[in-house]
Design goal:
- By secondary structure, the chain is an alpha/beta fold.
- The protein has twelve helices and ten strands.
- The chain has helices at 2-10, 18-31, 82-89, 119-125, 140-150, 157-170, 174-177, 190-202, 220-233, 246-252, 270-275, 280-286, and strands at 42-53, 56-67, 71-75, 99-107, 110-111, 126-129, 208-212, 238-242, 255-260, 263-269.
Length: 291
């Protein structure tokens, strides 16, 4: 209910009043006894990243450290490079012809673009949830079981059942579908489908979850459920989320990075970035002067 109330309040706010949503979220966490993060461990490190679609340069000299078990929000106007950057992290851009990357991206200190790195294994360690829910045309059970099966994470049906039920429970969906596991995943509501996709992502035991505008196609109630789920998941996962909603960034993230025209303009603690931005372009964006 707390997440839903914040969401309904934020939907009535403009860019400046995002700060109010941020402070409300911070105060609610303090009341619940949630402690601030004192020591951050870098999970992924991006250094001097340039990315090209053919001759077009989409990202320019981006350097960013992504801390472990934190939510990092990527914000900025449409076409600024947020989703391109996100897809670089688990090499999803590899499937696009004519793309080229320069620079270095590390996961736990290892170059994810190293020639000997297994890309399938990398994408198991760095899961992804897309903008539109995309369940497989399979049963709810088989949607979640697909990854563990192909990665050999379960040797018996009992082990597979445990992974499926545990993943659905973590995604906050088990109680809603417990008696419907053999029904098609495509028959669920939009919000349920997105949580199914999250369950599918965490079933292969990733370390990082990338989310590309996971709530843009959802109604406010479903969005609130996803945001509450993100708060719970960050206890065990590193999360990077692209969002066009500054209110959402304020509600769910601990760190925020602002992109503009393919460049990383500014990044840091979410509260600091929204209340005391260092770059005038950041100030202009969060106050609605452009974007």
């Amino acid at each position: 209910m707390r997440g839903r109330a914040l969401l309904e309040k934020a939907d009535r706010l403009d860019g400046v009043a995002t700060l109010s949503a941020l402070r409300t979220t911070r105060d609610a966490r303090a009341v619940s006894g949630q402690k601030p993060d004192l020591a951050l461990v870098t999970k992924m490190k991006v250094t001097s990243l340039d990315f090209y679609y053919g001759a077009k340069r989409a990202l320019s000299a981006v350097s960013l450290e992504i801390p472990e078990c934190q939510v990092t929000a990527l914000i900025g106007p449409s076409g600024c490079g947020k989703s391109t950057f996100l897809r670089c992290l688990n090499r999803m851009n590899d499937v696009i012809p004519g793309c080229r990357m320069e620079g270095r991206i590390e996961l736990d200190g290892r170059d994810v673009y190293a020639p000997d790195l297994d890309v399938v294994e990398l994408r198991a360690r760095i899961g992804m949830v897309f903008q539109k829910p995309n369940p497989f045309p399979k049963s709810i059970y088989d949607n979640v079981a697909y990854g563990p099966r192909i990665h050999g994470l379960a040797s018996t049906r009992v082990e597979l059942d445990e992974i499926v039920h545990s993943s659905l429970e973590r995604a906050g969906l088990l109680e809603e579908v417990r008696d419907r596991l053999e029904e098609p995943g495509t028959g669920l509501s939009g919000g349920q489908q997105q949580r199914l996709c999250i369950a599918r992502a965490i079933a292969v035991r990733p370390e990082v979850i990338l989310m590309d505008e996971p709530c843009s196609a959802l109604d406010p109630i479903a969005t609130a459920k996803i945001e509450d789920l993100i708060h719970e998941l960050r206890e065990n996962y590193t999360i990077v989320i692209v969002t066009h909603s500054m209110q959402q960034a304020a509600r769910v993230s601990q760190r925020t990075a602002f992109f503009h025209l393919g460049a990383l303009v500014e990044h840091g603690e979410t509260e600091r970035l929204f209340t005391n931005p260092m770059d005038p372009k950041t100030q202009d964006y969060i106050t609605g002067r452009f974007g």
